[in-house]
Amino acid sequence: MFAYIMRRVALAIPVLIGILFLVFLLNRLIPGDPCRAMLGEKATAQVCDAFFKRYGLDQPIPVQFGYYLGRVVTGNLGDSMRFGRPVTEMLTERLPVTIELALTSLVVATFFGMLLGIMAAYWQNSAVDVATMMFANLGVSIPVFVLGLLAAYLFAVVLKDTPLSLPPSGRLPAGMRVPTITEVWGLTNLEGPLRTLLDFFSQMYLVNGLVTFNWKLVGESIRHLILPTVVLATVPMSIIARMTRSSLLEVMNLDYMRTARAKGLNEGSVVFRHAMRNALLPVVTIIGLSLGGLLSGAILTETIFGLTGVGKTLFEAISSRDYGVIQGFTLVIAFTYVVVNLLVDISYAFLDPRIRLG
Amino acid sequence: MSTSAVANAPQQVEPIFNTKPRGLWSNAMSRLFHRRSAIIGMVLLGSLVLIAILAPVLATHDPIQSLIGIENVTKRAAPCIHALGCPADQPQHLFGTDGNVRDLFSRVLFGARLSLIVGIFSVGFAIIIGATLGSLAGFVGGWTDTLLMGVMDILLAFPSLILAIAIVTVLGPGLLNTLLAIGIVSIPVYARIMRASVLSIKQQDYVLAGHSIGSSSRRILFQNILPNALTPLVVQGTLGIATAILDAAALSFLGLGAQPPTPEWGSMIGQERNQVFSAPHLIIFPGFALILTVLGFNLLGDGLRDALDPRQRS
User: Fold this and answer.
1) Which of these, A3, A5, A197, A309, has the minimum number of CB atoms within 10 Å of its CB?
2) Which residues of chain A does B153 touch, with a Cβ-Cβ cutoff of 8 Å?
3) Which residue in B170, B277, B287 is closest to A26 by CB distance?
4) What does the pLDDT read at residue B37?
């Protein structure tokens, strides 16, 4: 088991280094002059020289990459040229928004996807099955931005003044102030990594509200999260439903299932303890792979619903050629993706003894 | 008794083979036409191809030309269909007009061409490069394999849309660069499929037989291995077109793909996204065109997979 985990971790390292290099390279290849993009078309050569020197852009490319590696290893992702702040600071502020959105979507997608998939497989070829699969086919075919805009229109305009109306943008009602966790807990003098961690969680309004017993904050953040979550969850939910259905159908007719029924187990136990255990492996893979779709979808969802998360920030950084932000954010997104897939691979070992012992 | 049986044998054996055995493809085709979802997919795509070809005939207006000063119609006007009770003195616009007073119906029709082109060409590009790299890696093995697949793993480590956005940022916005970016992003998928097929087919007896009678490596690759690896490529390619169309539309929506006034569905929606609350028809019509197109490729791809899957063949 330990050897298996170590082997998987070792395999991920060259990929991570490759990502670092590719991200670095892509940013150097971006056309246009970062100095004039940042300081305006009228910046003189002298001003630009100073600018290049300050950000190390006057060095040869391999040297720049060397510097870059050294900085990343020590946790310094550079500065945003546009905002003049460290990228890590922006990440601690905006990553929580995306993580909160992605995790709620993943939970919703996994729960409802598996539920629909199990129902469709259990009542195969029934109306439930046909309806679920039609829904799943539509779900993977709807562009995230079309679904987002239509949902915003439906819930904010058509259903306005009904109890079902939902806010189409933002994370909270205008003007609502959010105290940080450290403020509520009276730890304003706290410094260091713990403070950073608490500030990070403060930005996840749902978590913040729950740990500080601020129910108004919990309620409002949920109300604002519903639309983006549902929109972002639709594609992975459809994929998970299809995968659950097909992998359940594969095991449903096997001999051991008949044995389980023959020895008098109730249906719940047959489906959830015997069938699901074997059907779960492909589903776990799909859940891991869905994360890439969630991060891609986050760019569109955050842009539509006006959420200042990683996706929206990255998109804005690309428009304004903010090298530091593009580099830092792409890197963090790709690293997250690799690490999650690594965790998925490791979870196989727990779910499937053939891998653990093989 | 045994002698008479041998003597009669030829006449008895013959009738057993009076039906010609069907090949993989004709077999698959007949199965494909027996699946409801695959038929729906083919009907959707057939209509789409017809619309794309006949767009200039079907369109009621020029898709690029603004109607300011030509017709008495306001911008973002709601659909006006005479048969459904729209006053006859108003100019007819089946899907209404957009923010630049252009006929939305004609724009949506012409959009079919762009989506089909982007989907088919980017996937075609990805399959050609991906299959070449994949068969090279699988066939040659060793360091070539490790290196090529390492690069593919790195490309796969990025969520597809984010990598595509990064590539378009480097290449510059535009439809052609979008097509290229989406093609590059999809290469690893086809490389992996091809490599896996080549590796499994390489072990088959008939390839060994080819080697033993002295066939060249190239002959074995092109005559024996490639035709047998084609099935998963066709299935993945069809599903890949759906993804490519979605990604291209997303890039255009973000303003990185097709540039206005090109009648591209994603870009049309992106241009008018802030008007969704006052003029939802500008989102609904191009949006549904996108959904139906992607649905068509998805249904056909699923149908092809079921039809071509060897495990399902009796």
Assistant:
1) A3
2) 15, 18
3) B170
4) 82
Distance of CA B206 to the CA centre of its chain: 33
Answer positive or negative: Cα dihedral of A209, A212, A216, A219.
positive
* Distance in angstroms (rounded) separating the CA atoms of residues B181 and B184: 5
DSSP-assigned states of every residue in B130-151: HHHHHHHHHHH-HHHHHHHHHH
The answer to whether the CB atoms of A141 and B159 lie below 8 A apart is: no
What residues of chain A lie within 8 A of the CB of B165, using their CB? 299, 314-315, 318
Check pLDDT > 90 for residue A156.
no
From chain A, the residues in CB contact with B295 under 8 A are 137-138, 141
Are B157 and A296 in contact (CB < 8 Å)?
no
How many CA atoms within 13 Å lie on the side-chain side of B281?
A: 17
Most confident of A30-44, B5-19, B70-84, B171-185: B171-185
Is B250 in Cβ contact with A144 (below 8 Å)? yes
- In terms of Cα–Cα distance, which of B156, B178, B175, B154 is closest to B166? B178
Answer whether A19's CB lies under 8 Å from A338's CB: yes
The pLDDT, as a whole number, for residue B123 is: 95
> What is the per-residue pLDDT for B11?
52
The whole-angstrom separation of Cα A309 and Cα A299 is 8
CA distance B97 to chain A (A): 19
The model's pTM: 0.85
> Which of chain A's residues have a Cβ under 8 Å away from the Cβ of B162?
295-296, 299, 314, 330, 333-334
- Residue B313 has what pLDDT? 44
Q: Quick one: DSSP state of residue A275?
A: I
Contact A299 B162 (CB under 8 A): yes
Q: At what angle do helices B175-202 and B142-156 cross, to 10 degrees?
A: 140
Are the beta carbons of B287 and A146 separated by less than 8 Å?
yes
Whether the per-residue pLDDT at A137 is higher than 70: the answer is yes
Q: Which residue of B has its CA nearest to A296?
A: B161
- State yes or no: ipTM above 0.90: no
pLDDT tens for residues A157-204? Answer: 888 888 888 888 888 888 788 888 888 888 878 787 888 888 888 888
